[in-house]
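Progress note, sequence design subtask.
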């Protein structure tokens, strides 16, 4: 089930042909439901809807709250105009489960993190779930702690900035905006909160089977103006025994699900 909410960094989703109405049926079994005008739930689970599983579908999640997220089916779902940037990785696991991907590693600032590959495999041996209904990526403790340790070391070594001991945003790893603004100024990033602050974040790459997805600075960190915090938008899994590649890390990419061929293709796109 794909679920996208308009909440902080969530965005609304709409079919490209127009606004979704409550309980509007498409292709016999495909139902979109709108809740309180802010939540839309799309039943796109593998093996649950034959009309959907026979078709390709794709979506592109915009970074800015309030922008529409287009959802495409059939031929319109195919990636076009991105040929040199399209990457493809297998969708693994049974056809009646969620969409799982084989992740082989994570790199930060050009270095592969020391993570046991077995930690990327769920208890059911399926891999990492890709889910647009999860606000950000949730990683099992061993994976998250490796990412957190490397991120803290980078900010200390590169910018002499320490993380906050306590956060107000609810995220685990955050920095004071004042410290980040000072670091951004040293590299000509400008002063004060704004997009320039993201220039201090290191490049991060998720390595998949046969593909890799480079996270831009604005898909790793979020600026919480109300709390004066600059936070890593990833966390440790609590209610899920495996890893989830969430919506925040999917921003400004088009993802094409070819369910029949069990493959996922993606390419950068300004949504």
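Output:
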């Amino acid at each position: 089930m794909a679920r996208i909410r308009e909440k902080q960094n969530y965005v609304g989703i709409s079919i490209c042909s127009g606004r979704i109405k409550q309980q509007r049926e498409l292709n016999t079994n495909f139902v979109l439901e709108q809740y309180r005008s802010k939540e839309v739930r799309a039943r796109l689970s593998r093996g649950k809807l034959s009309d959907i599983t026979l078709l390709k579908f794709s979506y592109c999640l915009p970074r800015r709250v309030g922008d529409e997220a287009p959802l495409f089916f059939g031929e319109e779902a195919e990636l076009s105009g991105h040929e040199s940037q399209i990457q493809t990785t297998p969708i693994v696991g049974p056809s009646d489960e969620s969409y799982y991907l084989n992740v082989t590693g994570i790199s930060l600032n050009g270095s592969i993190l020391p993570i046991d590959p077995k930690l990327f495999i769920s208890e059911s041996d399926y891999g990492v779930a890709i889910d647009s209904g999860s606000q950000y990526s949730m990683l099992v403790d061993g994976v998250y702690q490796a990412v957190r340790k490397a991120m803290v070391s980078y900010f200390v070594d590169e910018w002499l900035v320490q993380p906050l001991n306590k956060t107000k945003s609810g995220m685990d790893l955050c920095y004071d905006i004042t410290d980040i603004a000072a670091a951004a100024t040293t590299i000509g990033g400008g002063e004060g909160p704004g997009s320039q602050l993201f220039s201090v974040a290191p490049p991060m790459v998720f390595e998949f089977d046969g593909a890799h997805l480079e996270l831009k600075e604005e898909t790793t960190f979020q600026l919480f103006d109300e709390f004066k915090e600059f936070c890593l938008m990833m966390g440790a899994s609590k209610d899920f025994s495996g890893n989830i590649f969430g919506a925040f890390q999917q921003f400004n990419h088009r993802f094409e699900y070819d369910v029949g061929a069990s493959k996922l293709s993606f390419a950068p796109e300004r949504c």
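Residues 1-43, 189-193 have pLDDT under 50 and may be disordered. Work on this subtask will continue into the next period as scheduled.
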